[in-house]
Specification:
This protein is an alpha/beta fold. The protein folds into 2 domains: 186 residues, 3-Layer(aba) Sandwich (Rossmann fold); 156 residues, Rossmann fold (3-Layer(aba) Sandwich). 40% of the residues lie in helices and 13% in strands. The two termini are 39 Å apart. 39% of the residues are buried.
């Protein structure tokens, strides 16, 4: 959805928006559909999350510590959120509903009038919700606990002051929050889980041709143009996520499956105090039995991979990026991958869908204390 057009449309008076529905324009219907849908409960899926790491084979969700929880994910249907941030709402809601049958889970656009009816719920605001101070206060005055999950958005001073707590998908954000909480607030780390539709594509690493790729928005890749022109990495623009959250581009998937190393180093200018980037691509690589080339200057990469991980861009310059890729290629050629594989195996447990469900459970227990 076009973010700019969506924002313009959302600012129109409701009467004009409704009149627009009668025009039967595909564009109008597309913009209005999620708003008209309003509050809707998420039904449990027949497929419970499957363990991919081996540590949760016999994990039971028969834990009544969050039974009775009324959980509502709020998102801005006209803001144009896509990709991993969209899954942070819909995949998380579906997973919690499927794992914890005693929890009532719903999704609601912030434009819906149903927002004013929420009472006694734990409300999770998605990034760029656009809610005003007064709207958040009204939610809290109606006995709702209001949490926010910025995903990779920039923290807002007014929002940070108003909410009751924070669900952090970035480890560096969680660390930063410890010195920014007021006396009534809490924070909990729920690492960003990879896309469930891709987790099942995991294969085994084979010592054939070295293949390093970057999957995502080109501007998020460090030295994308230079590394691509040198034929050191393949740049594959994200095409896996569609607005209905079900579509998968098969060529994109096949390119991903043929990749042994994902290049996940990003420009440092994209991160600053109050704005963080989760380790999503790293967790997807771990789930798919791939290795990564990260960046030592990236605190999030360093937190999850550790200082001893062998394939890191040491400094934010092109020669360092080239050296990291070349070292990964030589290590691949000689089969010297034990340390990197051990690291990614550890992260595979963090990326496990079952662990993600348990992380959410523990977060809501923590918030209720």
């Amino acid at each position: 959805m076009n973010s700019f057009r969506g924002r313009l449309y959302s600012r129109l008076p409701i009467t004009i928006q409704k009149f627009g529905d009668y025009l039967r324009s595909d564009e109008v219907r597309r913009l209005r559909k999620p708003v008209i849908a309003g509050y809707h409960e998420v039904q449990p899926s027949d497929d419970s999350p499957e363990c991919i790491c081996g540590f949760h084979r016999h994990e039971s969700f028969e834990n009544h510590s969050i039974s009775g929880l009324n959980l509502v994910f709020l998102w801005n249907a006209l803001e144009g959120v896509r990709d991993s941030t969209l899954f942070r709402v819909f995949q998380s809601a579906s997973r919690i509903a499927s794992c914890f049958t005693g929890v009532r889970v719903a999704i609601c656009p912030v434009q819906s009038r149903d927002l004013k009816k929420l009472q006694g719920a734990t409300v999770v605001l998605h990034k760029n919700s656009g809610l005003s101070n007064s709207a958040i206060r009204r939610l809290r005055q109606s006995s709702n606990v209001v949490l926010t999950d910025y995903v990779d958005g920039e923290h807002s001073l007014y929002l940070d002051h108003e909410v009751d707590g924070f669900i952090c998908c970035s480890a560096t954000e969680y660390q930063w929050m410890q010195s920014h909480l007021n006396n009534r607030q809490k924070a909990y780390l729920v690492p960003h889980a990879p896309d469930d539709r891709l987790v099942g594509l995991a294969g085994s690493l084979k010592l054939d041709d070295f293949h390093c790729g970057y999957f995502g928005a080109r501007e998020n890749c460090l030295f994308s143009r230079e590394l691509r022109s040198l034929e050191l990495i393949d740049i594959v623009e994200t095409r896996a996520v569609h607005e209905d959250t079900k579509f998968l581009d098969q060529k994109w998937v096949e390119d991903l499956r043929q990749t042994q190393f994902q290049f996940i180093a990003r420009p440092s200018a994209q991160v600053w105090p109050g704005r963080f980037k989760p380790f999503t691509k790293g967790f997807l690589s771990a789930a798919m039995n791939q290795l990564v080339i990260g960046a030592r200057f990236d605190a999030e990469n360093r937190y999850w991979l550790g200082d001893d991980y062998p394939f890191l861009v040491e400094e934010e310059n092109l020669s360092s990026a080239i050296a990291a890729i070349d070292f990964a290629k030589q290590s691949w050629k000689h089969g010297e991958l034990d340390l990197a594989q051990a690291t990614m195996e550890r992260l595979r447990r963090v990326a496990c869908p079952v662990q993600n469900a348990l992380d959410y459970r523990d977060a809501f227990i923590h918030m209720s204390r």
